Amino acid sequence: GAVVSQHPSRVICKSGTSVKIECRSLDFQATTMFWYRQFPKQSLMLMATSNEGSKATYEQGVEKDKFLINHASLTLSTLTVTSAHPEDSSFYICSARGKGASNQPQHFGDGTRLSIL
Amino acid sequence: KNEVEQSPQNLTAQEGEFITINCSYSVGISALHWLQQHPGGGIVSLFMLSSGKKKHGRLIATINIQEKHSSLHITASHPRDSAVYICAVTGGTSYGKLTFGQGTILTVHP
Predict the structure, then answer these.
(1) Of residues B58 and A72, which shows the higher confidence score?
(2) CA dihedral A88, A89, A90, A93 (to 10 degrees)
C-alpha cells in the first residue's frame, strides 16, 4: 500500500529552537498533505492543508507564522515550528492524499513527538 | 454535539472475542473512514467506504447511509489488535477534510 514517511520521529530541544518536520510520500504523488496535532488522550486536530505549489490553508486558531508549511514538490511537505515553546510540545502527524477526488484515502505518517524543554 | 460520535470510548475484551465499535454521524458525507492508531502514535487507514460492507482479514466494516451509522467488527480478537480505533468522515461541512470521532480505546487481554 501507499507509504508516507515522516521524519524525525522524536525531537527534544530547548525553548526558542525552530524545528522542521518532513513528510514524504514514497510511492505516490501527494497533491494534498494535511498536518495534524494531537494532545494526549485527545483526537487529531487539523492544523493546515497544503496543496503542492500553493500556500497552505490554516485552520482557525492556528498561527501561520508560528507553523510554517511548505509543499514544494509532489512528494514532500515540511512543517516548521518556529521559536518553539513548551506549550508547542505535542504529537504532530501528517497525511497525504493522491490526485483525484478529494474523498480518496489519506495515508498517514508515523508522527513526530515534539518535546520542548 | 460532535458531528461524529463513537461508542464505546473504552473497550476491554478477552482474546478470541468478537468486537464491535460503533460510529454515528450527523452530516452528509462522501465517505467514512476507519483508522487504527497504534500505541506509538502511527495511524493506519483500515477502510474507506461509502456504502455496504468491506472485509479485510478479521476486520469487517459496514455502513448504513440512511441511518448515518457505521460499525467496525473484529472477529477472533487478539492482543495485537489493542489500539485506538478512529472513525472519520469526509464531506458534510468540511468537504475533503477528515472530521474525526473521539476514538475507541481497545484493549484485548490474552
Answers:
(1) B58
(2) 70
